[in-house]
Amino acid sequence: MKFPLTDQLIAEAKQFELRSACRDCFYWRPARDACAHDWPDIGQRRWPLDAPDENGERPAEVAFCKEFELY
């Protein structure tokens, strides 16, 4: 699921210590560097949410996986 990356979302992610990156998910398998369900992780590995993308720019949106389970 994709949402606009707003200043409010960034502030709330910091305030409430939101975790949504693949590395924090129960289904993430570090040995494989991939999801146990083989879901793509485009835009979901980034942490913090406002970390620069591969082009060095702040992304305009953030992706959240529907199967995310906090590890």
Distance between the termini: 20 Å
Biggest β-sheet: strands ordered side by side in the sheet: 1-4
On the 0-100 scale, what is the average pLDDT? Answer: 88
Helix content: 10-25%
Instruction: Please give the largest β-sheet.
Output: 2 strands, antiparallel
Binned strand content: 5-15%
Order of helices and strands: EHEEE
What is the approximate shape? globular
Q: Mind telling me the C-alpha Rg?
A: 12 Å
List the total number of helices.
1
Task: Report the strand count.
Answer: 4
Could you list the spans in which at least 5 consecutive residues all have pLDDT below 50? Answer: none
Give the helix/strand class: alpha+beta
Q: How would you describe this structure to a colleague?
A:
The chain is globular. A hairpin with a 4-residue loop joins strand 2 and strand 3. It has one helix at 7-15; strands at 2-4, 28-29, 34-35, 61-63. It is α+β, with helices and mostly antiparallel strands and 71 residues long. It is built from one helix and four strands. The strands form two sheets. Strands 1-4 form a two-stranded antiparallel ribbon. It has a two-stranded antiparallel ribbon with strand order 2-3. Helices cover 13% and strands 14% of the residues.
